[in-house]
Amino acid sequence: MSGQDLIDAGMSQGKWFRPALDAANAVLSKGGSVTDALEAAKAFQPGPTLALRADNDIEIYSNIRAENAFEQDNVEKVNATMRALVRTPVVRAAAIMPDACPAGPVGTIPVGGVVASEAIHPGMHSADICCSMAISIFPGVDPKSLLDAVHAVTHFGPGGRPRGAQLKPSEATLSAFEQNPYLRDGVLSAGIEHFATQGDGNHFAYVGTMKSTGETALVTHHGSRAPGARLYDKGMKVANRFRERISPETHRENAWIPADTEEGDLYWSALQTIRQWTRENHYVLHDMAAEKLSAKVADRFWNEHNFVFRKSDGLFYHGKGATPAFDNWAHDATDLTIIPLNMAEPILIVRGSNAAHGLGFSPHGAGRNFSRSAHLRQLSAEYGADSRGLSPNNVAAILEKETSGLDARFFSGFADVSELPSAYKSAANVRAQIEHYGLAEVVDEVIPYGSIMAGDWQKNAPWRKKRQ
Ligand SMILES: Nc1nc2c(ncn2[C@@H]2O[C@H](COP(=O)(O)O)[C@@H](O)[C@H]2O)c(=O)[nH]1
Ligand SMILES: [Mn+2]
């Protein structure tokens, strides 16, 4: 039997013809009739596809206010991308947080975006699954000693810890990796290699004092590193296969894995394991610092801001750069969450207010003002850099202005000026908008002493040196 026979029988050509013909010819080779063979082929015919929703079908709750012309442009871009996104057939509602900024082509969920859907969209929790904040309180420890201790035990930069310096996640986490097909093949080994590492970009270890008690606190920010990134890749591939069959018009970035499938169940369970790995990844660093200081941790909690949560209405709430602010958002949730702003500002400890117009979320930070490259261009113009870019003197002047009074450290030994406070929106404005929209209540603050970030780890990379 050939493709033409299927077309003659009224079927429309597509990728599904290959397995359909294999099945039909298997029937014929076993002596079955042409009618039976055509029936066998028909079983592969894709069902009807889901069309995109109409333009204004879904409500978008906006909790963002532009404070200047530049922010107006940002808000328009965020609105445009959300308007395209909510045309995805299974999406039910969306919200925009005060720290929102675009994060990809139009139709991609912005940072500071919340989307409620009937299904799981890997693209909407982003590649850095479970990027999160964790805090531990170290009573009686002075901030400098704590920052020194963290500096000695942590790992920033690309890749994982070298062999011989690796640490293992708990047995429970390792066995959960082994049991899930999404988390085998390379994900498990990455889970060991990347354990107790923080990566690069704006991930940090921040030490400060609690406004309420004066006690010293350590706050870390990072995600699920390579294991999470690999799960994301696998999830996107599976989701895209469903998209091609169920809703080819849907934007690739918004492809979904239906919840009521084996793929959906396993992906959901893999997400929970990655969450467990990430929590351990924060606390192992806090514990190593405590051990180095022979200190005790009095209290700790954490929250993710890139994740998917399932609420009692059965829907999946995706937060990309959004902090859960509804009750019992996870089995280990406290009533407090952590919102950083920039290295020179206090980190906010908030109690979420489960606002309906925020779909039960609050912001996750101040949000970027500029992309990294735009920010560098702006600093170069402001500090009069020549065509070779910022000079060591320029960098020293920028650091002096932006980190004065702070113990600001860069793990690589070189500052990454694109991550300094001027890269982010006004902390005061974002704080005012959290209050204005009633998304959360600030109950305490961590006043900055200093922090460590990866810094510019490519500074002395061979390809950079060649260009200079
Ligand atoms: N306390 C600090 N906060 C910082 C720093 N760099 C960035 N930030 C804030 O974190 C959020 C979260 O970023 P994301 O990568 O998860 O989107 C960001 O919006 C900033 O407000 C820092 O060095 N210290
Ligand atoms: Mn983050």
UniProtKB/TrEMBL annotation:
Concerning SUPFAM superfamilies, the annotation shows: Hypothetical protein PH1602
What top-level class of enzyme does the UniProt entry assign?
Answer: ligase
Keywords, in A-Z order: GTP-binding, Ligase, Manganese, Metal-binding, Nucleotide-binding, RNA repair
Q: How is the cofactor bound?
A: Binds 2 manganese ions per subunit.
Q: What is its EC number?
A: 6.5.1.8
Required cofactor(s): Mn(2+)
- Locate the residues binding Mn(2+) 2: 221
Q: Which GO terms describe its molecular function?
A: DNA ligase activity; GTP binding; manganese ion binding; RNA ligase (GTP) activity
Q: Key word Manganese present in the record? A: yes
Report what the protein is called.
3'-phosphate/5'-hydroxy nucleic acid ligase
Q: Which organism is it from?
A: Rhizobium vallis
